[in-house]
Amino acid sequence: MAIHAELSRLLGSEHVHEPSPGSPYNRDASGRRGVVGEADAVALPRSAPEVAAVVAWCYEHDVPIVPRGGGTGLVGGAVARDGGVVISLERLHAVRELEPALWRMFPEAGVTTRHVQRIARENGLMFAPDPGGAEQSQIGGNVATNAGGPHALKYGVTGAWVSGMEAVLAPGEVVDVGGWIRKDVAGYDIKDLLIGSEGTLGVITAVRLRLLPAPETALALMVFLPDRACGCEAIANVFAAGAQPSVLDFLDATTLALAARSYPAAGDGEAVPATAGFALLVEVDGSRAQAEAQRAELLELFAADAIAVHEHRDAGALWRWRDGINPVVTAVRGAKVSGDVVLGVERLHEGLEGFEEIAQRHGLKPCAWGHGGEGNVHATVLVDPEDEHELDAAERVMDDLFTLVTELRGSVAGEHGVGLLKGGWLARQWDAQAVEMHERIKRAFDPKGLLNPGKTLAR
Amino acid sequence: MAIHAELSRLLGSEHVHEPSPGSPYNRDASGRRGVVGEADAVALPRSAPEVAAVVAWCYEHDVPIVPRGGGTGLVGGAVARDGGVVISLERLHAVRELEPALWRMFPEAGVTTRHVQRIARENGLMFAPDPGGAEQSQIGGNVATNAGGPHALKYGVTGAWVSGMEAVLAPGEVVDVGGWIRKDVAGYDIKDLLIGSEGTLGVITAVRLRLLPAPETALALMVFLPDRACGCEAIANVFAAGAQPSVLDFLDATTLALAARSYPAAGDGEAVPATAGFALLVEVDGSRAQAEAQRAELLELFAADAIAVHEHRDAGALWRWRDGINPVVTAVRGAKVSGDVVLGVERLHEGLEGFEEIAQRHGLKPCAWGHGGEGNVHATVLVDPEDEHELDAAERVMDDLFTLVTELRGSVAGEHGVGLLKGGWLARQWDAQAVEMHERIKRAFDPKGLLNPGKTLAR
């Protein structure tokens, strides 16, 4: 076909695929029904100029352009629902610059998040963001979705660590915005606008990342509490006491029960207490003295209400267990449907309770976990992937959940972005004039509407 | 006149002024020749709806709108050069919400920065940004210019602490963007776009600020070094050693000589050493143990090259001295002209040297100080305000400085923004397509070009 031939001319035919409907390039990690692409071609450029050449050709020929990172998204942001060309950034995998003494690294978009973290660590530094799926997810996609992770509580989301970026803007120009300077108030922040824009304003090709000296120590605690009310109060108490843990994640009763079997033995070999109805995964970091002082402060804080507190000397095992929650929960009934929402911390209890009621009303089993200190909830229902009735019910649960969240003045997206699945919700979450500006920004960057069409739609 | 009558109808006649050419509302703190407004009226609304009413009337009648905070800017951003209505936010001075246990405060735009800092401190919290002129500057203006200050090194600039904001967008709508949630990746970041947009995209009326628990201790050091090369190397060494001071400011030889007389006696009553050719003002903070550990680390780091290191037990006195540099330098010849630029930290020495050569070439006396850890330089020449020849030369110095900075891939604005005085420099600092997007964003938010016209122009 024409697209294939034209792209082959630009990239070489071995770097242009025609994906089958079942190809991974037509899916993401959500496995959701509506998330199926119909890409006409997958382009695998090797460089920013090659990305620009593909964008320029597509823009001239009115062909949709869908940038794609590691495919770990959960909202359909990386699939070509309306056809067109998927631009996979996986071959842009060079680290162009690494300056440990200046705390900075310049990876191309296709470098995996884990690789970025590893290089930083090998140089005594830390790349703080730690979204799930780091082995597969790519730094460009992380920036395009402004990915979070547990440590965002203390260190902020991915965007907080982006000093500058190289991107291809329509109709096919490579731009370098931001640079390495540590401060800049000249002009509108185009870099910040591209961060989290999910490929709808441009294609990110390389990212200038700020790093931090690695903290000397991180200490992990599991805090088991009798119930949700008590757990949410414990989170509020952490703030009220002025404590600043690096992680303050939570698991509700169902999640805890499902994950209890794989829970790693802490120092004294304890298991998850049978009476626990809520748990917090807390980490403190810094110098050893500082981390220990914080741990002592938190232990005192939790002493009154906790059923048990486990100190995990092998934090690695605890984190592997935490990362395993997703597959464990999925395995129960074969699939799950999650809405990754945010509530004000003071609204967390109300939101969790409301979500449980919603799921039960629709006859589905709910569970929730997430980043409690940020009110970021992975609100999940367990489903049988073959049961269309349950899948329909799950969609209704998500609709009701998003309605609840907007009523509570939260956000429908705490991670992954709007994508395909949350299109239209901004119009309910935002004031009308802000929605209008959202659409004008899109038209300013993409007058032909070809950059990741159908994604991040405000209404 | 018509404008006055119309605005009086909206706000009451006592809240609408007709300013004289010499009125403070037609000036800013720069005192620069080109920075003179010709406002037709100054409007003093009391609330966001009143701001919206003024904006709506102006927008309908094609009258320029110039939002104004405390008037401490240095680039002419707050003056109505093309006439129209100055909207002074000073009567929006309520703190709408204060939740110490949730680390947050919701001041209106006209609350002074010092008041925000004071309320935070009285509640055991800290509002980290500390731009100069805090008694007079207002939080709305700070957000509109994304103000910095010494502590931005560790804590980031003002924008990093803005969770959400209320603003009036054209053609006169109040919007509330961002809210209180601690994480949000739904849609383009309109809040971030308004931060630092200098009133050219909308009028900020209230700001949701995140606070932090106040650090237990802050310890201040003055480090005296023989010369600029040695001083810039010391700054680089701080990063290379992985130290994380909260402040890493610098003073060059001339600044140091001018400010030496008012230097506060440190612990042992020492004065500025006669042989010092560069100085660093360093602060570390945290728990007492943590601050002391950091101080020890830095003392060791500076030991090899420093002529002297003074530990200031009364950090307040040291900071008052530091804040006094501006008036001290101004007093030498009656005026000064400053360009507030940013260089990569690794380019700092080259930039400072280049600036000195430029000033000397134009026959003016240069001095420089600023936030060394961020490469943010207050590059200054001393002038006689009555000497037109010197004032012309100073303009040429600034032009050459900005040229140098763009060649070194720095930024022409590290604080205060582009305003009137740096208009057009973005086109030399940025790639062409980014400049194009800058202008499209402006048109998207302000199709009639009435919001602070002539400011933040990219070319």
Characterization of the model:
2 copies of one chain form a homodimer. By secondary structure, chain A is of the alpha+beta class. Among the domains of chain A are: 1-214, Uridine Diphospho-n-acetylenolpyruvylglucosamine Reductase, domain 3, CATH 3.30.465.10; 217-323, Alpha-Beta Plaits, CATH 3.30.70. Chain A has helices at 2-11, 48-60, 113-122, 139-144, 152-155, 190-194, 228-240, 253-259, 288-303, 315-323, 325-333, 348-361, 388-407, 426-429, 432-445; strands at 16-17, 41-43, 65-68, 85-88, 95-99, 104-107, 125-126, 162-169, 173-177, 203-210, 212-213, 217-225, 247-252, 278-286, 308-312, 335-342, 365-371, 376-383. The first copy, chain A, has a 7-stranded antiparallel β-sheet, sandwiched between helices. Chain A has a 5-stranded antiparallel β-sheet with strand order 5-6-10-8-9. The longest helix of chain A has 20 residues, at 388-407. The first copy, chain A, is globular and about 65 Å long. The model of chain A has no long low-confidence stretch (mean pLDDT 96). At the A-B interface, strand 9, helix 6, strand 11, helix 7 and helix 9 of A face strand 9, helix 6, strand 11, helix 7 and helix 9 of B.
List the helices and strands and how they pair.
The structure is a homodimer of 459-residue chains.
Chain A: H1 2-11, E1 16-17, E2 41-43, H2 48-60, E3 65-68, E4 85-88, E5 95-99, E6 104-107, H3 113-122, E7 125-126, H4 139-144, H5 152-155, E8 162-169, E9 173-177, H6 190-194, E10 203-210, E11 212-213, E12 217-225, H7 228-240, E13 247-252, H8 253-259, E14 278-286, H9 288-303, E15 308-312, H10 315-323, H11 325-333, E16 335-342, H12 348-361, E17 365-371, E18 376-383, H13 388-407, H14 426-429, H15 432-445
Parallel strand pairs in A: 2-4, 3-4
Antiparallel strand pairs in A: 1-2, 5-6, 6-10, 7-11, 8-9, 8-10, 12-14, 12-15, 13-14, 13-17, 16-18, 17-18
Helix pairs in contact in A: 1-2, 12-13
